[in-house]
Amino acid sequence: MSAADFVSPDAIRRQFAQAMSRMYRAEVPLYGDLVDLVARINTQVLGEDRELAAQLERNDGRGRLDEERHGAIRVGTAEELATLRRLFAVMGMQPVAYYDLSVAGVPVHSTAFRPLAADALAANPFRVFTSLLRLELIEDQALRAQAADILARRRIFTDGALALIAQAERDGGLSQADAARFVTEALETFRWHSDATVALQTYHALSAAHRLIADVVSFRGPHINHLTPRTLDIDAAQQGMIEAGIAAKAVIEGPPRRACPILLRQTSFKALEEPVHFPDTQGGDTGTHTARFGEIEQRGLALTPKGRALYDQLLAQARDSDGAGSTDSDYGTRLRAAFAAFPDDHDTLRREGLGYYRYQLTAAGRAAPEQVADLPADALIAAGLATADPIIYEDFLPVSAAGIFQSNLGGGEQRAYAAHANRDAFEAALGASVHDEFALYETLQADSLAALHG
Ligand code: OOG
Ligand code: NI
């Protein structure tokens, strides 16, 4: 078979994202309600905000919006993580960024698998936030050994999926028929299983160490725990959730509402309490487990390291001003007050080097190549010959992620682990290094600048 007969990784990713969405809709009907709510709000926003609609069109952003999702999973071993890396690579998804959640009391570290190139993101930006459990953070040695033993024995991939991954690696791609089989086989890894693999007592012991440990260790595989549509107005979405009687999280994670959205804002509904059958409780008691929830996000401008440092500083200021964290009722006020120091118009954000922008010639610019040739980007923009649109943030935020984890674990597990970030250990487990997100945005911006005079 020649390369021309292979399906593109983008097409496989789209099929997989759609299959995952169908599966999750059937498993968690409230997710379907969120998708419908977001679609309604996005249509309304685009009808009212012509400028935003034009900007999305200019940047190939309209088509992807209706399908855009991210999901999240948690795995237990290096081998599981490394095999996931190979599985996602078949769909053109690469690990980007390292997130340390231990500082927020969650015993995992993470990356996100996602497409890298502008055209691949436009085709389908599906991403999966993927966390690896840090067993070394379980203090009880016997429990740690037991968890490691359970994890070592499970197999989270089907034989068919493993064979097709190897085939794709060997041949450089998959045919249409094999891609369809790959999607079906890969989906099995992410399915929910209401049968636990451990005794109820073990589940309780793991849960007492940390509820997340029980979630990872007690089941056959890394069930997808949420799937998140992207809204253009998260405040409207939050309001819509409340009006629909959905138990929304109290606080929207991330920056406050702004004229120029930056990075990522997220809200979620609490995890469902689901019946679980334990192998030692025949016909009798079943237990419950909370793992799966719904989330909505709004994405904005990707920030440069300088912009990100300012964001981190202002967020810390809002959270720490009286040691109150993000859960009290004044938090919204403090957050808005702190972010008054973050410029909120695109000219200033761009000129001060706080965010990444995509440059393009306007129709007038394309019609006047000789005029364009002599002018730098700023002059082209001033003359109406070029536009600079925000490059959208495609990644995640560790403080927000910790907030999402916490609100879905219940209980007061805010205690930070003494452990530090351990990116080297994560990359050793992954079997690859993670891409630097700033370098990716920098390249997108530089390519667009080069194309102005190309
Ligand atoms: C992942 C939570 C992080 C996000 O959007 O920040 C996340 C998890 O609960 O496994 O999905
Ligand atoms: Ni999420």
TrEMBL record:
Record-linked InterPro entries: HGLS, YdcJ_bac-like
Enzyme class: oxidoreductase
Protein name, entry field: 2-oxoadipate dioxygenase/decarboxylase
Signal peptide: none
Keyword Transmembrane helix: no
Species annotation: Stenotrophomonas tumulicola
Keyword Iron belongs to the record: yes
Family the entry assigns: Belongs to the 2-oxoadipate dioxygenase/decarboxylase family.
